Amino acid sequence: MQMATTASASAPKRMFAPAADRNKEPICKVLQKYLPEKGCVLEIASGSGQHVSYFAANLPSTLTWQPTEYSGHASFSSPQQQADAALDSISDYCEGLANVLAPLALDAGAEEWPVDSNKDIVAVLAINITHISPYHVTEGILKGACRTLSTGGTLMIYGPFKVGGVASPESNARFDTSLRSQDASWGLRDLEAIQALAEESGFAAPEVTELPANNKMLAFRKL
What we know:
About 35% of the residues lie in helices and about 20% in strands. By secondary structure, it is α/β, with parallel strands linked by helices. The chain has a six-stranded mixed sheet with strand order 4-3-7-8-12-11, sandwiched between helices. It has a two-stranded antiparallel ribbon with strand order 1-2. β9 (about 160), α5 and β10 form a beta-alpha-beta unit. The two termini are about 30 Å apart.
């Protein structure tokens, strides 16, 4: 998800990801199915902030959102760009939304996440991160979500995936090849491998929702 700073004088801190603008509505419709009326949703790698601001404005206001970002996220447009720039963009998009907390710097692959244990985290959401980060980040998301969520909580992972070891259709196969040419540790992950890791981490088998542009939403319930 490549992002660039907007040229708008009215929003100088905002970055913009075209893909996030396209997929925010279909993702939001899936979230309506799985999220409760109350509690806090922890978003991993919130990027520009386009998603969390849209979800917070269009889902029940009784839901609280905790956005996060990491300085090593592949969406940064240059090696010099740091987490602060993304955190500023998130804050700018979410200005005036009382149900969005101040964004946190969070490394999903870390052994501990800087999340307040007193918050009622009902869901963890990761959008377009597993394929543009090393596999230990995917492992960290599953393990961290298990530590963070209570029984019945939901982990939701969105993106393109391989099924049965195959990237399909051809556009996803080309995308996978392109990602691996940029960084050998990136690439589409096997849905079955993620499911196995999730079950080892204490989650039920996922419900899978097909979404536009050959993407899927995987919804795992903590047992």
